[in-house]
Automatic annotation (TrEMBL):
<protein>
    <submittedName>
        <fullName>Glycosyl transferase</fullName>
    </submittedName>
</protein>
<dbReference type="InterPro" id="IPR001296">
    <property type="entry name" value="Glyco_trans_1"/>
</dbReference>
<keyword id="KW-0808">Transferase</keyword>
<feature type="domain" description="Glycosyl transferase family 1">
    <location>
        <begin position="213"/>
        <end position="357"/>
    </location>
</feature>
<dbReference type="Pfam" id="PF00534">
    <property type="entry name" value="Glycos_transf_1"/>
</dbReference>
<dbReference type="GO" id="GO:0016740">
    <property type="term" value="F:transferase activity"/>
</dbReference>
């Protein structure tokens, strides 16, 4: 079998976040590849930030075969030095030469688990650039899932690392047209590869109604990470104007939502398992993408747009460039007032628009994206 290494931000087996590289890793594993999923370098400082991730990476750091899924394996290198937006950790040279700080010897570890030589080195996290120094690969691919310098948590030196990554890669994919435009000064041949949907997880013969959905009110749902880009004030405004509608927020929370916690028709549910999420969407009346509009969000390709629509549900989004660029059937609002009005329209047209939305999602699956990748590699 051929071999590929994925170097990402997330853990492969995170139960709630299944982002692009998870789906591509699965597809490569089903198409003749053994996959090694390499987590970010870690040390004891990770324990302070996230105990769960620390314990997972500690377990994966032993140079043994750690099977995560069929034909998919995991490894997490231990490093006595880390890179990030903290004192003494901001220098780009840490990432450009990370292998110097990793123990035990990373080349020996990769050799022991059979991934010192691979067909493809796939990097979506610029902090993993150093792998290109130690892995023997036939082709290196960079995938840009975000505008790193705007997402937060990175020092300014991430721009130096990103430039090195893009210039060194054989192919570069970006998830949005705006991201391609922004990086064209570094490289002019970046390929457009937006996000998609895993229909097998969302289209089912039967859905189980969540116990929380026990009221007769209309329901609006948001599924996804809740970070600094999430417009909590917009949700507050909508919940006040639409008191006969309940708003449900699902996803990991990394933002202060205290402004929403005493609102009777807003329910903050936190993380839910990826397999459970279709049940919540199916029994909702409209779905939301309530993001602030800025440099970061104008460069995203919202996975949730495709996931929502796979169940036929209408989507109301803020005025994001990519949502407009792909000419999606979403209701796109450029003001709080329009957002409220579009929620009303989305619910009213729920049945009429269902098949249109499903057709749109079927044209935007991860499988279709993978076919394009195969053509290019």
């Amino acid at each position: 079998m051929k071999k590929i290494i994925f170097a990402d931000f997330m853990e492969y087996d995170d139960p709630s976040n299944k982002l692009g590289n998870y789906h591509y890793a699965k597809l490569f594993s089903q198409n003749g590849y053994k996959v090694l999923w390499i987590s970010c370098p870690w040390n004891i400082l990770m324990y302070i930030k996230n105990k769960e991730v620390y314990l997972k990476r500690k377990d994966l750091s032993k140079p043994n075969i750690h099977e995560l899924d069929e034909n998919i394996y995991g490894f997490a290198p231990h490093s006595w030095k880390l890179y990030g937006d903290h004192l003494f950790c901001k220098n780009a040279n840490i990432v450009l030469n990370f292998e110097k700080y990793i123990t035990p010897n990373i080349k020996k570890s990769l050799s022991k688990i059979g991934f010192a030589k691979v067909d493809i080195l796939w990097i979506s996290n610029p902090k993993q650039y150093w792998l290109s120094n130690v892995v023997q690969y036939k082709k290196m691919i960079a995938r840009l899932p975000d505008d790193y310098c705007k997402i937060g948590g990175f020092p300014e030196s991430i721009n130096i690392i990103e430039k090195e990554l893009l210039n060194k890669s054989d192919e570069v994919f970006a998830i949005s047209k705006n991201l391609i435009d922004k990086k064209s000064n570094i490289r002019e041949d970046i390929k457009y590869l937006p996000n998609g949907v895993e229909l097998d997880n969302f289209i089912r013969s039967k859905y189980n109604k969540p116990k929380l959905f026990n009221k007769n009110n209309f329901r609006c749902i948001y599924v996804g990470a809740i970070g600094h880009w999430f417009d909590a004030e917009l949700i507050k405004y909508c919940s006040n104007k639409l008191k006969d509608i309940d708003f449900y927020l699902i996803g990991p929370i990394n933002k202060d939502l205290s402004t929403l916690k005493n609102i009777k028709n807003v329910y903050i549910l936190g993380k839910k398992d990826y397999k459970e999420i279709p049940n919540y969407i199916y029994y909702s009346d409209a779905a939301l993408i309530p993001f602030e509009v800025n440099e970061l969000t104008n460069s995203i390709s919202p996975i949730k747009l495709y996931e929502y629509m796979s169940l036929g549900i209408n989507v109301v989004s803020t005025d994001l460039k990519e949502v407009k660029y792909i000419n999606s059937p979403a209701y796109v609002a450029d003001s709080y007032e329009k957002f409220v009005n579009y929620i009303k329209q989305a619910i009213k047209n729920k049945d009429k628009d269902r098949q249109r939305n499903i057709r749109f999602s079927k044209e935007n699956t991860w499988n279709k994206r993978f076919e394009k990748i195969k053509e290019l590699i």
